[in-house]
């Protein structure tokens, strides 16, 4: 379905120029919306910087590791080749934004996996029910009555 964007919501495009729905869903989430407006702006910029860093390293954010985060921290705080290094407190805020994003994505993935498991259980139950209906429907009417009577007495 179409992704709705609320007024003032951050909107990032990925390296290929297309939006990443999973990133945009984070900006639509309650976890993000409850932040103060200034924090939302800061978190969006911090996340854009981190995602851009990963992209520049050839890493999809979904496959980023602790090592990638350590590389980002080194580049942001210590790399003499970076003329815009930041303080510990600034990096801590960036890390909070990154942590909030990944934490939300993990919870979302867990919920999606649980919904998928539930849908699978429901599909199996329907398959079993259909099979029982087919088995009962294939019986002669007298046999059906006997079978149904057995089950209704239990």
Quick description:
The chain is mainly α and 154 residues long. The chain is built from six helices and no strands. 69% of the residues lie in helices and 0% in strands.
Structure description:
There is one protein chain. Helix 3 crosses helix 5 (88-137). The mean pLDDT is 81. The radius of gyration is 26 Å and the shape is elongated. The longest helix has 50 residues, at 88-137. It is an all-alpha fold. Helices cover 69% and strands 0% of the residues.
Structural class: mainly alpha
* Proportion of residues in β-strands: under 5%
Give the proportion of residues in helices: 55-70%
**Given the C-alpha coordinates, what overall shape results?**
elongated
Uncertain segments of ≥5 residues (pLDDT<50)? none
Largest sheet: none
Evaluate the radius of gyration.
26 Å
Give the number of helices: 6
- End-to-end Cα distance: 46 Å
Mean of residue pLDDT values: 81
Secondary-structure element order, N to C: HHHHHH
Which secondary structure elements does this structure contain, and how are they paired or packed?
Layout (H helix, E strand, L loop, with lengths): L20 H8 L1 H4 L3 H20 L9 H12 L10 H50 L3 H12 L2
Helix pairs in contact: 3-5
């Amino acid at each position: 379905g179409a992704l709705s964007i609320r007024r003032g919501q951050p909107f990032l495009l990925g390296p290929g120029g297309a939006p990443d729905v999973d990133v945009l869903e984070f900006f639509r989430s309650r976890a993000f919306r409850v932040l103060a407006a200034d924090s939302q702006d800061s978190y969006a910029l911090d996340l854009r910087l981190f995602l851009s860093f990963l992209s520049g390293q050839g890493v999809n954010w979904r496959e980023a590791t602790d090592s990638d985060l350590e590389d980002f921290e080194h580049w942001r705080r210590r790399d003499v080749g970076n003329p815009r290094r930041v303080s510990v407190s600034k990096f801590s805020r960036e890390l909070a934004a990154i942590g909030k994003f990944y934490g939300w994505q993990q919870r979302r993935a867990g919920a999606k996996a649980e919904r998928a498991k539930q849908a699978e259980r429901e599909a199996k139950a329907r398959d079993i029910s259909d099979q029982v209906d087919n088995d009962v429907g294939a019986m002669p009417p007298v046999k059906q009555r006997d079978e149904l009577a057995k089950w209704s007495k239990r």
